[in-house]
Amino acid sequence: MAKTSEHKSRKKLWQLNPYVLVILSFIVVILIGSVLLIMPFSQADGKWGVYIDALFSAVSATCVTGLCTYFEGIGNQLTFIGQVIMAIMIQIGGLGFVTVLTFFITLFKSKLQFRNRYLLSQMVGSTNFADVVRFVRRLILISIIFETAGTLIGLPVFFQMYPGDPLKAIWGSAFTSISAFNNAGFDLFGATSLVRTGNDLLTNLPDWAYYYMNSYLMVLIVSGGISFLVIIDLFSFKSPRQWRAFTKIVLNTTAGLLIVGFLAFLSSDVLFRSDGMSVFDAAFQSVTLRTAGFATYNQDDISIFGKVIGCIFMFIGGSPLSTAGGIKTTTAFMIGLAMFSYFRGKPVIAFKRKYSSNMIVKAMSLVFLGIFAALVGILAISGFESDRLVGIVQTDRPLAIIYETFSAFGTVGVSVGITPYLSLGSKIVLCFLMFLGRLGPMTFLQIFQANMDKKQSLHYEYVEEDFLIG
User: Which end of the chain is more exposed for a tag (fewer CB within 10 A), N or C?
Assistant: First the structure.
């Protein structure tokens, strides 16, 4: 009798909408993580933590954002156990709880029923539900390889940073690599991210070690944000002609955004400012806005034009099926291609492939929903902070709030420095934005509209009619 009820409950679980399971899995991880973070064993002072800060940290870690409400940063606020909890949430958030769970299930159970494979393929974003188990194992393997490589490559720097404490150096390198590959943006250096000013750990590093660390972190950030499908294509050693159209779109769009971002910051904050960024900072800024959250330059000192460009790049984010957030590079590519094709009066074609109007509508819908969510967030935070945040940063309050909002929705994590000073209401709003940005607005819509991607077969057609627009 007990077995029958257990079988029925398990069957009922699998009959849930796969998108509901994804959302529930993230909520469960966040709630468990937040409870663990307020425990005295997670807090450096050995006392109970403040729950809203623990919840905010759990959301930021699971949604791989990097925004932090702790004034001293997680490296000084949390114990080793608390830092491990954060790293686990970052890892689960980057890969997705369902991906990690599927991996461990299939270690002991190699065969899954057809329906279960289909549901898992929907939840992890695989295009081949028949081979979803192998696909999930590849995702885990890719993450392990990149994060292990990053840890080993970073050891020379962290041995310099923590002389005489090899265990702390190894942990620091491992945590930073996990955070970088998963585009989380958390670090153990303090409250200034990778900015050397006011940070003894980074100031005392030799220049070679500092630039060496930031260089390999840029590689990890880009690798984590270009999509696992692209990495699989690249390491299959096929000819570029045999790559998926998806791979070509992601690589070209990512390269274009990185170059344009670098040139934009070069012109706005390097060439025409005597006290602005260095050329290296401009390159790093362009990379970190791919939703990473690390910063080698104080975001409060960036020019107004630089902050506006930053909001645009944070909104776009990384690529689908990666550890990054935002509306994704493929969405931006599709909208740009559709507009370009429309002005030329030609069909939407790229890389010898024609793209359906359904993809264009989906891309447009995603952008509209993203802008709507960001605007609601900006208005809500502006309301909560109407008589606050005065004199905290040099950036004008409205622009600081806009920058913070786009950083949360794009799951980036850069900030001009207002995060710890925000009110309870604003922190909750940012939590919702991070959650929405990580899962994507379309995921939530799929819950209520099961037929979103299905075509209706009608026995009749309506007369097509055009009318004036604009």
Answer: C
Task: Give the span between the Cα atoms of 446 and 444, in whole angstroms.
Answer: 5
Q: How many residues does the chain have?
A: 470
Q: What is the mean pLDDT of each run of 10 residues along the chain (470 residues)?
A: 52 58 86 96 94 96 94 93 96 77 59 54 53 78 94 96 94 96 92 86 92 96 90 86 88 95 94 88 94 92 94 92 87 92 87 86 90 96 88 88 95 93 95 91 66 59 75
Sequence ranges of the domains in the chain? 14-448
**Is residue 18 helix, strand or coil?**
helix
Residue ranges in 243-356 assigned as alpha helix (H) = 245-269, 279-288, 304-316, 329-344
Report the 10 Å Cβ neighbour count for 156.
Answer: 15
Query: How much is the pLDDT for 63?
Result: 93
Question: How much is the pTM?
Answer: 0.89
Q: Which helix (DSSP H) or strand (DSSP E) does residue 349 occupy?
A: strand 349-350
Instruction: Report d(CA 168, CA 162) in Å as an integer.
Output: 7
Output the CA–CA distances (angstroms, integers) from residue 452 to 174, 192, 361, 430, 446, in the order listed: 41, 44, 11, 28, 7
Q: Are 259 and 231 in contact (CB under 8 A)?
A: no
| Euclidean distance between CA atoms 410 and 60, whole angstroms | 12
Q: Report the alpha-carbon angle 413-304-381, nearest 5.
A: 50
Strand partners, 349: 354
Interhelix angle 357-384/441-448, nearest 10 degrees: 110
The dihedral built from the CA positions of residue 9, 11, 13 and 15, taken in this order, carries a sign that is negative
Tokens describing residue 304: 């107004």
DSSP-assigned states of every residue in 105-160: HHHH-----HHHHHHHHHHHT-S-GGGHHHHHHHHHHHHHHHHHHHHHHHHHHHHH
